Structures are given as structure tokens and as C-alpha cells.
UniProtKB/TrEMBL annotation:
Domain of life: Bacteria
InterPro entries: MetalloPept_cat_dom_sf
Name assigned to this protein: Uncharacterized protein
One term of GO molecular function: metallopeptidase activity
Organism: Piscinibacter terrae
Signal sequence region: 1-28
């Protein structure tokens, strides 16, 4: 092989490696189906309505908000007074965050978003089920922080980095901070890849905004009977149809289409007990 041929081959290999390096982040996506808040500015602040009833949950929400604000992300958060209650009724342009004893229904955390125009988030809610968090298995600060961080971030349009139980050291994985791992702080905060993914999701601008009730049509959607129909309750019957579930059964996604043309999409984080009974079942009905 001549020196010139070797140099050309080396250059081609170098370019190929650079292309792979550039392509990898966009391919290793954990966007939630392209869902995103419509906005007209590169950076925006999403209000997180604090409807939490205990000091420890309030502290976990404050910590999650701070963590998500720390990564040079286009999505900033601000914790504000809640306008809902245990039911966690959605409010246009915001994410409402709640806790309560929602019952022995198998779910640990619930994140719901309302979608219009195919991909635009108009409102969200995140719920923590104290029926389980007050039990010995789940009642530790690391598991609470992991679930709070994840459920809130689903309403940004983020999906999971992993659902197999391994730790990516991101709250967007399904590592469990319980049992022997109860003292571990792994997976309780976002990591660099989460912030990179948010930058990809929000790399474009929209012609309208669904943030903080700016758009008049979004404000109109937040009142009246139609708005109530867009809410997602803690009752499994309100979630709609099962459209996706992880192999181990801990993560499920449901969709419900509404009469006004919008749809509700809900991420459900099931307990160990629910998935142990039947990993492949729709856990709403496997009891």
C-alpha cells in the first residue's frame, strides 16, 4: 500500500468515526414520542404546581426542580402554589404535582400529559402514591426522590433511558432505590444525556406557546366541562388503552382520545409487587 493510499484510508476512517460520534446522541433518544411544550423562545420556564401535603414531598419537589434547572437545559422549572388537590386536576400551561393515598392499585407513580396537534403538551400532572410510599419497601428518601424526579420530567416530554432495572445514574431509568439499594443515591438526579435529549427535543421553535396559559386557546381549554373530560384520574379506567409496556412490566403507557380532538397520554410506574404477579399483563386487571 502506497503512503498516499494509506493516508486517504486513514482520513476516511477518521471521518467515519467522527460521523458515528456525532450521530450517536440523536439515535440514542429517549424522547417521549416527540411530545413537547409549544413555545416561541429557545428557553422557557414550566410552572410546577405544588399540591403536596407533606414537608418531605415538598422538599423532594424543590430538589427535583433545582436538579432539572442545573444542566443548561432549555426547560427550566419554577415551583409555585398549587391550584389543584389530591385528584391533581390539570391546569393549562402547567404541571400539577400531587401525593395521596391513592389505594392498593399497583402503581407507585403516575405522569399524565394532554396533547393537541399531535405532539404539543398543553398541561400535565405527576402523582405519587402514598399507599406504597408509606410502606416499609418504598419509604426512603432516595426512592421518593427518584420517582419525583422522573414523574415530573415525563411532563417535559422525556421517556426512560432504560427500563430493565439497571442504573444509568439517571432518574429516567428504572433502577430501584429499595431493599439493599435503599441507601443508594444512584438514579436520583438527571444526567448529562437527559439534558442533551431535552436540547434535541426543544431544538426548534413553535409559532404558538402552550406554557403558563399564554395562548388564548389554551386558557379556554382549562375551564368548563370539556376541561374536566381531559383530566386523568388515579382510577385506571380513566387512562384509556394500553399502547406499550416494558418487558419486565414496570413501565406502561396508556392513551385516551378525547371528544375535543386532544388525547391524554399516561406513564405508569408499577410496584415490584404488581410486576411480580404477571410481568406481561395489563396490571390494571391482573389482581
Amino acid at each position: 500500500m502506497s503512503k498516499k493510499t494509506f493516508q486517504r484510508l486513514a482520513a476516511a476512517v477518521s471521518v467515519g468515526l467522527m460521523l458515528v460520534a456525532v450521530a450517536t446522541p440523536s439515535q440514542a433518544t429517549h424522547s417521549w414520542a416527540g411530545y413537547h411544550w409549544a413555545r416561541t423562545t429557545p428557553e422557557f420556564t414550566l410552572k410546577l404546581g405544588d399540591n403536596l401535603t407533606t414537608a418531605d414531598w415538598k422538599a423532594h419537589l424543590a430538589q427535583s426542580s433545582s436538579d432539572w434547572n442545573s444542566g443548561n437545559s432549555p426547560v427550566l422549572t419554577a415551583v409555585v402554589g398549587g391550584t389543584s388537590n389530591k385528584r391533581c386536576s390539570m391546569v393549562a400551561g402547567t404541571t400539577q404535582v400531587c401525593n395521596g393515598r391513592y389505594g392498593n392499585n399497583g402503581w407507585l407513580g403516575l405522569a399524565s400529559i394532554n396533547i393537541t396537534g399531535g405532539v404539543h403538551i398543553t398541561q400535565g400532572s405527576a402523582k405519587m402514591n402514598d399507599t406504597y410510599f408509606n410502606s416499609a419497601t418504598y419509604n426512603n428518601p432516595n426512592e421518593r426522590e427518584h420517582v419525583m424526579c422522573q414523574e415530573v420530567a415525563h411532563t417535559f416530554g422525556l421517556d426512560h433511558q432504560s427500563t430493565d432495572g439497571s442504573s444509568q445514574n439517571s432518574c429516567m431509568d428504572y433502577f430501584s432505590n429499595t431493599g439493599a439499594n435503599a441507601g443508594s443515591t444512584l438514579s436520583t438526579k438527571p444526567n448529562r444525556h437527559d439534558f442533551d435529549e431535552l436540547s434535541l427535543i426543544y431544538s426548534h421553535l413553535d409559532s404558538t406557546s402552550t406554557i403558563n396559559q399564554i395562548a388564548a386557546e389554551v386558557v379556554a381549554m382549562s375551564v368548563g366541562p370539556a376541561a374536566a373530560n381531559r383530566d386523568v384520574g388515579d382510577e385506571p379506567e380513566s387512562w384509556g388503552q394500553l399502547v406499550r409496556q416494558s418487558a419486565n412490566g414496570r413501565s406502561s403507557v396508556y392513551e385516551r382520545h378525547n371528544g375535543d380532538g386532544s388525547k391524554n397520554v399516561t406513564h405508569v410506574y408499577w410496584t415490584h409487587e404488581a410486576t411480580a404477579r404477571c410481568p406481561g399483563c395489563d396490571h390494571r386487571y391482573d389482581r
